[in-house]
Every structure is written in structure tokens, then in C-alpha cells.
TrEMBL record:
GO molecular function: serine-type endopeptidase inhibitor activity
Domain Serpin, first and last residues per copy: 1-141
Protein name: Serpin B12-like
Family: Belongs to the serpin family.
Lineage: Eukaryota, Metazoa, Chordata, Craniata, Vertebrata
């Protein structure tokens, strides 16, 4: 989708992202990419979000039932935290425990150029399933 990152961000929904990344909307071609080295980390407390989705009892000392995980009647969830880490450098990409490196040969064929010297959105996909593993925004490259 052409346009600045604010327009793309405003239009970013699960449905639109799935459409943009669908095989019918993508074509394979050579692109020379220049992106800065960057490392992003984020940590989110999910307690309120999970409780908002109806997961209430598991956070209660009196009502939690985690007997499927442990024979102890004393267990309950106190905190649920999600932590994400993405590191992009000259060697490749590290996202949490997944690492990928792309190597290409040089050719004389025409290719497009993308220089990420401005804010940009990125996503890391699981190629076999097309599942979005990470979605992020780099504000100050």
C-alpha cells in the first residue's frame, strides 16, 4: 500500500493486513534494501486485557482452578507479561528465539530501491503459514 506510514497505520486492521499480505496482492521482484541497525524491546502487562476478555477467576486466589497444571489448590495467576525483542543488524534478524538471514547474489537486472531513512512499519512473517509473528514501527531510523 503506497502512502506515508501514518496513512498505513490509520488503515492497519487485521483484515487489511491479511489482504495486503495475501499472495494475490504480492509479487516477487528484486529490491535493494537499506535499513538501519535497530533493536526494539517491548513489555506489556496483560492482566487487564485478559480480564477484559473474561478471564477473571484465574486471577482470584479464591476462585482460580489450575489443577490441570498442578495438584496444588494454592495456584492463581498474579501477573501475565508479554515481552518481545527484535534485533536487526548486518548479520540478520533476531526476533525472540527465531533467527533468519537472507543472502542474495548480485546481478545486473533492474531492481527497486528502498532506503529506510524515515519512519516505517515492519512485520516478520512465518513463511509456511503466513502468520504475522511480529509487527512493529521504527519511528527514528
Amino acid at each position: 500500500m503506497a502512502g506515508n506510514s501514518q496513512q498505513v497505520e490509520a488503515a492497519l486492521t487485521c483484515k487489511n493486513l491479511a489482504s495486503w499480505l495475501s499472495p494475490g496482492n504480492l509479487r516477487e521482484h528484486s529490491v535493494e534494501i537499506y535499513i538501519p541497525r535497530f533493536k526494539l524491546e517491548a513489555c506489556y502487562d496483560l492482566n487487564l486485557m485478559l480480564q477484559g476478555l473474561g478471564l477473571i477467576d484465574v486471577f482470584s486466589e479464591a476462585k482460580a482452578d489450575l489443577l490441570g497444571m498442578s495438584p496444588s489448590h494454592q495456584l492463581f495467576l498474579s501477573t501475565v507479561v508479554h515481552k518481545a525483542h527484535v534485533d536487526i543488524n548486518e548479520v540478520g534478524t533476531e526476533a525472540a528465539a527465531a533467527t533468519g538471514v537472507a543472502v542474495s547474489n548480485r546481478s545486473l537486472e533492474h531492481h527497486e530501491l528502498f532506503v529506510a531513512d524515515h519512519p516505517f512499519l515492519f512485520c516478520i512473517l512465518h513463511n509456511p503459514t503466513g502468520t504475522v509473528l511480529f509487527l512493529g514501527k521504527l519511528c527514528c531510523p
